[in-house]
Fold this sequence. Notes:
By secondary structure, the chain is mostly helical. Helices cover 45% and strands 0% of the residues. The protein is built from nine helices and no strands.
Amino acid sequence: xxxxxxxxxxxxxxxxxxxxxxxxxxxxxxxxxxxxxxxxxxxxxxxxxxxxxxxxxxxxxxxxxxxxxxxxxxxxxxxxxxxxxxxxxxxxxxxxxxxxxxxxxxxxxxxxxxxxxxxxxxxxxxxxxxxxxxxxxxxxxxxxxxxxxxxxxxxxxxxxxxxxxxxxxxxxxxxxxxxxxxxxxxxxxxxxxxxxxxx
Length: 199
């Protein structure tokens, strides 16, 4: 495994190191020092934070339930009107929210397709889509679920949330390949939250 991140020295702090440790465990870091590129500067300078992230999430139109494209349309539209670095910041915050829900306690509480054991069938994709549903339902619900995994949605998901940034970039006629996020959204990435996988 070899991943590469670009980060300004001022942002290389204990919180960043803690995130790396939680995601990768005991690995070796190789540090290179070089002048900031314009691309990395613009990403760091994004002013889109948590509050704005949740405001954007609230733009999902749930009166259009049954037509996912119409539900996400307002969010895609407003994202497409933002600067690319703000779209990337939204993607990073989304990835963090999904990563924090990637745990066994949450996976055991999603209804019919809940996780039971590492020897039983479990859809990693479905669990990711259920986590998307939690975020899509807004800040209050997300925080309730985060503190109480038993409140995870049962037998419901919202996969389209994964693609809103890509669709926004396409509307801007720019590459939809955003910077890799620090947090991995794939199921089992948050290894410290999966006790059944411990050696």
